[in-house]
Amino acid sequence: MLFLQQLLNGLANGMGYVLIAVGLTLVFGVLRIVNFAHGEFYMLGAYATYYAMALAGLSYLPALLLSTVLVAGLGVLANYFFFAPLQKEHEFTILLSSLGLALLLAHSAEAIFGADPKYLDTPFSDAILDWGNITVTQQRLLIMGVATLLILLVYAFIRYTRMGQMMQATAQHPEGAALTGINTRFVHGYTFALACALAALSGALVGPTTMLFPTVGDWAVLKGFIVVVMGGLGSVTGALLGGLILGVAEALGGSYISMGFKDAIGYAIIIAVLLWRPQGLFNAGAQR
Amino acid sequence: MSFFKPVQALVLGVLLLPLAMGNDYVLHMLTLWALYSLLALSLNIVVGFLGELSFGHAAFFGVGAYTSSLLVMQLHWPMWITPLAAAAMAALLGWLIGYVSLRIVGPQFAILTLGFGAIVLTITNYWVDVTRGPMGLSQIPAFSLPALGLDFSHAIHMYPLALLLLIVVLYGCHVLQHSRQGRAFIATRENRELAAAIGINVFRTKLIGFVVATALAGFTGALYAHYLRVITPDLMSLSYMSAMLIMVVIGGKGSLYGPVLGALLYTFLLEALRSSGAWRMVVFAALLIACVVFLPGGLVSLWRRRQGAIA
Amino acid sequence: MLFFSRLCPLIFLLLVSMGFPTGVWAQAKPSVRIAAINPLSGAGAFDGQLALEGMQAMVSIINAQGGVLGGRMLELVTYDDKGSPEEGVSAAKRAIEQDKVDLLVGGWFSAVALGQKEVTRDKILHIVTSSQHPKVTEEGHKLLFRLNATSSMMSERYSKFICEHIKPKSVAFITINDDYGRLEVENYTKLLSACGIEVKGNEFYNRTDNEFTTALTKIKSLGAEAVYVSAINTSQGATIYRQLKQVGHRGAVIASAGNMNPKLVELSGPSIDGVYSVSLFAPDSQRPMARKWMMQYAQMFKNEPSFIGALGAQSVELLAAAINKAGDARNYAKLASTLHGQKWDTLLGDISFDDKGQAAQSIYLVQVKDKKIIGVK
Questions:
Q1: With an 8 Å Cβ cutoff, are A268 and B285 in contact?
Q2: In CATH, what number does A2-112+134-276 get?
Q3: Do the Cβ atoms of C150 and C354 come closer than 8 Å?
Q4: Which of B53, B279, B284 sits opposite A111 (nearest CB)?
Q5: Is the pLDDT of residue A209 over 60?
Q6: Do residue A116 and residue C49 have CB atoms under 8 angstroms apart?
Q7: Do the domains spanning C31-149+286-361 and C151-279 agree at the CATH topology level?
Q8: Which of A229, B2, B164, B194 is deepest in the core (most CB within 10 A)?
């Protein structure tokens, strides 16, 4: 029984990680940027939802949608100012720029929103479903449901729509894509906005499971990196599998081995993957 | 190119003035600046000379601090040896991690070092029996020379020592920069294929640089521990790591005085902006981005440009 | 040459800027300056803010009553220790050397307090408000005083209450992995087993964790009737209470001593209703100074008055009283012996200090009912 419960916990947490990781992996695949600031968009999504509810009096779901749109817009601006001008530079420079952006956003959030923890209240967070000895909150079911739906949508989008195919082309060969008439700058902006929207959505969904504070983005981006490295930078299916594996490994490891193990396992996995199969466990080249 | 220039005597004079004023606070800040400069210089070897972005460097700083403290407190080693032992320990760890990681290129190296750094931090946090975990170590003995009345946990004594060590390390970096090894570093940084083509063992070069850098970081950690006398695993955290990177990048990576300048800015500007609260880190983040985007050579490149040198 | 003309002025400017005094204007009588060193950013920022607010409210009260020593106003000089010992030490040095404060109050995080006490050692009167680490007073100095009860002190009374009043058949612990938590679980395991409660197990968590479901699921599977939650950090505490309910625990929940505050109640929502704790501060206290302080606090700040704030206020109250009795704000030996020399009546009740500077204070049982913290008789 404990095993099943922990398995379920792991899958629920894992789906949360997946949501965070999908945007990160897309940005790397298409823009070739390792975006340390990704977690901050997660944090902003959670805060935007909180303030939309607190100040504008919206209920949870509309607030969630509004914050997703807002943060996506913010993402477009961020890309325009901090990443697009550095396109031609060494990836080092871009990495540092994203680190700077992450620090900027996290500390600005602390200065503006205050350091005190906030709670994002939703109608789903405390309601529990019980099946025999297995318990799960509605919020976590919501996360799992929405994440599954989103993964399918994103996958279908990339595979079948014109924009998605342009994203694939840009990811595979930027110069070649440009030669066929694709406006790569537009594709970049679009992808970045999409990634930020996904990050914000995950912030709004996963945020209510714990407290909100300005540095929550650091945690989110680290988890995202672990998953993305596991799944392969650029692979959406990789992100799905990686996220679930991480969630389950943490839950089972923490339960049966130790809590310290739970903390360390993510990092141990990245190290193992990067040394043994740096392109990721589920990545066959740059396919999606 | 000679290391010793007349203008340095003037600068040294200025830096020694506060000793006459006897203000413990200012001397404390200057001591911290000197220690941070050493730390930034060590990261500069990896980031500036080798051209690799390492996110795990804070771990070596922490390992040095803990090693020296524990050797003195638990095993009662004499205090003059322990910083060297700390440097050796950090170098060993650096060798292990570097050996495994330096073959990886690109952003994966940054993530890999991040992972290693995080694991070292996690181990330090959980291995409570040895490290006392999050509670940290306190009442760490300070270096002292009772015969001469010197107590190196007092800024007035530590500052000259730290300054002296800083000068020594700066000289060492200068020598390194102009040596064959140093030129090999730069070659592998600029174009690894070309460097390999002319016979430089790229991997070995990077490993040597990495180990030297981590040894220096560990040594600085030991100095820091015996000066401040309280350490926690936070030394290995991302916030220290970001601080180090900020110092190196804003100051000027790859240059000799850049990291020192970056450390100066970080230490003093941060204190001067105390009243701004959370906004002061926003200022630094903005400075970091500005440097990355507009001034890749850091502040040092500002007057290099004025002198017409190739930045 | 350019190096000289650019770098040296920069160094000079920065050094000189350190030399600027922080605005002490000439007044009728010079104010008594108290350094208030709290975490105001980073982890613990919110708690630091509450402590500072508590102090500021008390300063207003005392100044409105005419200050100390016949007309000298109290002035708080605030510093941010950022939760790190290094910053705490820098702040203390700045306060003493640069800003030349008269007295010092500081030390929320234990590591910070431990570092700071070495800076203040025999130099200035130092009151540590909330750090519970035993070494603060064990390795303290003659000018050091600590207000908060150590967890050993609170455990005697609290365990008695748990044994006699709450009476669970079994208990499991979830504990923060630091000095405080480890001592808690050690103490209570002994004390509760002694009265026949079965201790089913313990899980540790870290200062930086924000997800506890795995640990709590483990605890739930142990089948304990009550869960004892050791949490200092408000945010972590609230998350634990919520997630404890979310994993389906239906039994009693006991909060560790000294950590109940209104923000915790607000963030935990319904999951904290009925939870017991022990505190030095009872919000429904009828003591005149307590009520006065709470009213002043409500006028000045939008947060609710909390235990942390009350400790900050108590430090100011004690300093003012000692200064008045000793007749001097800078004769530290005299102030120290004055503080040691009697029992003081403060907003939290009676307080006296032992020869190591450790305070002995009243301890109240509290419970959360309908989103309010009330004292339990």
A1: no
A2: 1.10.3470
A3: no
A4: B279
A5: yes
A6: yes
A7: yes
A8: A229
The pTM for the full model equals 0.87
Lowest-confidence pick of B105-109, C222-226, C295-299? B105-109
Neighbour subunits, C (≥3 Cβ pairs < 8 A): A, B
Taking residues B94-99, report their average pLDDT: 94
Q: Which of A137, A211, A255 shows the shortest C-beta gap to C246?
A: A137
Q: How far is B304 from chain A (nearest CA, A)?
A: 20
Interchain proximity A115–C206, CB inside 8 Å: no
- The residue extents of the domains of chain C are 31-149+286-361, 151-279
The CATH label, of 3.30.420.40, 3.40.50.300, 3.40.50.2300, 3.30.70.1560, for the domain at C31-149+286-361 is: 3.40.50.2300
Distance between CA B39 and CA B163 in Å, rounded?
13
- pLDDT tens for C349-359 read 899 999 999 99
How many H helices and E strands in chain A? 11, 2
Please indicate whether, in this complex, the C-beta atoms of C221 and A116 are within 8 angstroms of each other. Answer: no
Question: Smallest Cβ distance to B119: which of A96, A111, A267?
Answer: A267
- Taking CA–CA distances from A4, the nearest residue in chain C reads C217
Please report, for chain C, how many H helices and E strands are present, in that order.
13, 15
Question: Contact at 8 Å (CB) between A31 and C250?
Answer: no
One DSSP character per residue, C308-331 reads HHHHHHHHHHHHHHHHHHHT-SS-
Check CB contact under 8 Å for C84 and B234: yes
A92 and B53 Cβ atoms separated by less than 8 Å: yes
Q: What is the pLDDT of residues C289-321, one digit of tens each?
A: 999 999 999 999 988 888 889 999 999 999 999
ipTM of model: 0.85
Domain residue limits, chain A: 2-112+134-276
| Domain C151-279 coded CATH 3.30.1480.10 | no
A50 part of contact set with chain B, CB < 8 Å: no
